[in-house]
């Protein structure tokens, strides 16, 4: 057994491809990310593997990627969706981690606005899921439309409007905005 410590500096994209910056657990302050000692590390199959392979930052940097650890990884969700885990990992590899991080930071800004301006305290998980699964362009269009059409609405009506708009976009893109347990 190795004595090396698992190091994780990127709280935007996890080692295995989860978009941590869009996770309700991290947003609520209940997660420190996949660092040694955190709740994620204790159940993570990928962190010990990272140590064995020289403390790689992202699985796509490994010669063995994708390995058997990815078999079925996207079939079930936890508090964050795993649905795009492999797809997002491939995208980060293709466009480069810095470009991927920039895109995720724009999504994080949209999520912050949704939580601040459209959440009644009951939709944080839904908004995180929608921002995680929908494309940035679609999210920007929906937010612009909502900003224009919800000016005189109370918070409950604004929240309902946003949920409906996100669900309709998901339906058009054949994306179900519901966690799979």
What is the beta-strand fraction? under 5%
Low-confidence stretches: none
Q: What's the total count of β strands?
A: 0
Percent range of helical residues: 40-55%
Oligomer: single chain
For the largest beta-sheet, the strand count, sense and barrel status come to: none
Structural class: mainly alpha
Number of helices, where a helix is a run of at least 4 consecutive DSSP H or I residues: 8
What's the SSE pattern?
HHHHHHHH
| Mean pLDDT across every amino acid position | 88
**Rg for CA atoms:** 17 Å
- Gross morphology: elongated
Measured distance between first and last alpha carbons: 33 Å
What keywords describe this structure?
elongated; 8 helices; 181 residues; mainly alpha
Q: Could you write a compact summary of the structure shown?
A:
The protein is mostly helical and 181 residues long.
Give a topology summary.
Blueprint: H1 24-27, H2 39-43, H3 46-52, H4 85-95, H5 97-117, H6 124-133, H7 136-149, H8 155-172
Helix pairs in contact: 4-5, 5-6, 5-7, 6-8, 7-8
What this model shows, in words?
Helix 4 (85-95) crosses helix 5 (97-117), helix 5 runs antiparallel to helix 6 and helix 7 (136-149) packs antiparallel against helix 8. The protein has helices spanning 24-27, 39-43, 46-52, 85-95, 97-117, 124-133, 136-149, 155-172. The protein is mostly helical. Helices cover 50% and strands 0% of the residues. The longest helix is centred in the middle third of the chain and has 21 residues, at 97-117. It is elongated, with a radius of gyration of 17 Å.
């Amino acid at each position: 057994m190795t004595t090396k410590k698992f190091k994780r500096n990127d709280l935007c994209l996890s080692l295995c491809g989860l978009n941590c910056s869009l996770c309700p657990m991290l947003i609520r302050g209940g997660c420190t990310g996949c660092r040694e000692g955190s709740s994620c590390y204790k159940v993570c199959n990928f962190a010990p593997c990272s140590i064995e392979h020289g403390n790689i930052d992202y699985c796509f940097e490994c010669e063995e990627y994708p390995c058997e650890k990815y078999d079925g990884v996207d079939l079930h969700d936890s508090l964050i969706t795993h649905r795009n885990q492999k797809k997002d990992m491939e995208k980060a590899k293709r466009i480069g981690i810095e470009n991927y991080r920039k895109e995720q930071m724009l999504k994080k800004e949209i999520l912050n606005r949704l939580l601040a301006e459209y959440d009644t305290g009951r939709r944080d998980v839904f908004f995180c899921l929608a921002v995680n699964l929908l494309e940035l362009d679609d999210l920007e269009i929906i937010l612009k439309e909502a900003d224009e059409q919800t000016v005189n609405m109370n918070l409950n009506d604004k929240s309902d409007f946003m949920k409906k708009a996100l669900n309709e976009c998901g339906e058009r893109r054949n994306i179900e905005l519901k966690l799979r347990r």
